């Protein structure tokens, strides 16, 4: 459920109700918020680094 949620949030930004519902069925509200925040933070950092062209290709 976490991977499906992460994939949808990362690839398409919007998350289907079924996927979000599965997450809510498995985790407490606080845990769901923590999962969302973690995925959002990693997506933000990833996009930030790509925009700055920072990465292993640069020497």
From TrEMBL:
It comes from the Eukaryota. InterPro entries: AhpD-like. PANTHER family: 4-CARBOXYMUCONOLACTONE DECARBOXYLASE FAMILY PROTEIN (AFU_ORTHOLOGUE AFUA_1G03690), 4-CARBOXYMUCONOLACTONE DECARBOXYLASE FAMILY PROTEIN (AFU_ORTHOLOGUE AFUA_6G11590). This is Uncharacterized protein.
